[in-house]
């Protein structure tokens, strides 16, 4: 069974640019959550999508957005990049409902560096 | 004050020792409690999860939840160098709510 796939693994962007990250969840999983991980703040929740609808949202500015497609694949977009956006962006997939919803499986992440 | 507090370490113990990792939390609505392990340059991997209070054991790992004290623990018996990683506690209120993570404890097992 394939795991969660995130692309690209590494990305270098310039301040002011925008970036799109992709996440393919485990087959059959309908929920995709996005997290930002930095040494100072740890793992912070960005948003969660379930069946193409945003179900939960964290406390990030509107420059951070996401979407989910009918095949459950998800993308997140960051516009007008700032130096502070440099982080590891992690995607987690889960069934999305029922008792097994608690089990979230993470991808390896996309390391974004803003210069 | 953060909703979930976790000592960042680093914690260094000799091989074979019993390791105790802990988190405290402030939100009494949390009902699902999880422990993740993260190796360097990898995504977090779910180790164990517990619903409400009590203990759960899986091999060398035991998770404990004390909701009255808002305190959770992970014990690792017979620790191995391969257990060296960052351990993150995590919790959530309902099954549909977002997961809140602790900042992680860096653990090193000395051979």
- Helix percentage range of chain A: under 10%
Can you count the beta strands of chain A?
11
SSE arrangement of chain B, N to C: EEEEEEEEEEE
Morphology call of chain B:
globular
Instruction: Give the structural class of chain A.
Output: mainly beta
Gap from first CA to last CA of chain B: 37 Å
Q: Indicate the mean pLDDT of chain B.
A: 92
Number of helices of chain A: 0
Instruction: Give the biggest beta sheet of chain A.
Output: 7 strands, mixed
Radius of gyration of chain A: 13 Å
Tell me the quaternary state.
Answer: heterodimer
* Strand content bin of chain B: over 45%
Word description of this protein:
The complex is a heterodimer of chains A (115) and B (111). With 115 residues, chain A is mainly beta. Chain A contains no helices and eleven strands. The mean pLDDT of chain A is 92. Chain B is built from no helices and eleven strands. Chain B has 111 residues and is mainly β. Chain B is globular and about 40 Å long. In chain B, strands 2, 4, 5, 9, 10 and 11 form a six-stranded mixed beta sheet that branches. In chain B, strands 1-3-8-7-6 form a five-stranded antiparallel beta sheet, with no helix packed on it. In chain B, strand 4 and strand 5 form a beta hairpin. The chains are: A mainly beta (115), B mainly beta (111). At the A-B interface, strand 5 and strand 10 of A face strand 4, strand 5 and strand 10 of B.
Question: Short description, anyone?
Answer:
The complex is a heterodimer of chains A (115) and B (111). Chain A is mainly beta and 115 residues long.
Features:
heterodimer; A: about 120 residues; mainly beta; 7-stranded mixed beta sheet; 4-stranded antiparallel beta sheet; 11 strands; about 50% strand; globular; B: about 110 residues; 6-stranded mixed beta sheet; 5-stranded antiparallel beta sheet; about 0% helix
């Amino acid at each position: 069974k394939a795991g969660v796939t995130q692309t690209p693994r590494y990305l270098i962007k310039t301040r002011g640019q925008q970036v799109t990250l992709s996440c393919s969840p485990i087959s059959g999983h309908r929920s995709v959550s996005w997290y930002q991980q930095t040494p100072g703040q740890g793992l912070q929740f960005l948003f969660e999508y379930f069946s193409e609808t945003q179900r939960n949202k964290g406390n990030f500015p509107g420059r951070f957005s996401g979407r989910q497609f009918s095949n459950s694949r998800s993308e997140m977009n960051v516009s007008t990049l700032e130096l502070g956006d440099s982080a590891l962006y992690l995607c987690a997939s889960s069934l999305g409902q029922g008792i097994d919803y608690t089990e979230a499986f993470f991808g390896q992440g996309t390391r974004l560096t803003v210069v | 004050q953060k909703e979930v507090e976790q000592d960042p370490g680093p914690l260094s113990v000799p091989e074979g020792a019993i390791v105790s990792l802990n988190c405290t939390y402030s939100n009494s609505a949390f009902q699902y409690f999880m422990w993740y392990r993260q190796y360097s340059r990898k995504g977090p991997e779910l180790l164990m999860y517990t619903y409400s209070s009590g203990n759960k054991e899986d091999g060398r790992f035991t998770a404990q939840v004390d909701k009255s004290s808002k305190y959770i623990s992970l014990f690792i018996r017979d620790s191995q160098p391969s257990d060296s990683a960052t351990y993150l506690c995590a919790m959530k209120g309902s099954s549909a709510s977002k997961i809140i993570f602790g900042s992680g404890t860096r653990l090193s097992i000395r051979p």
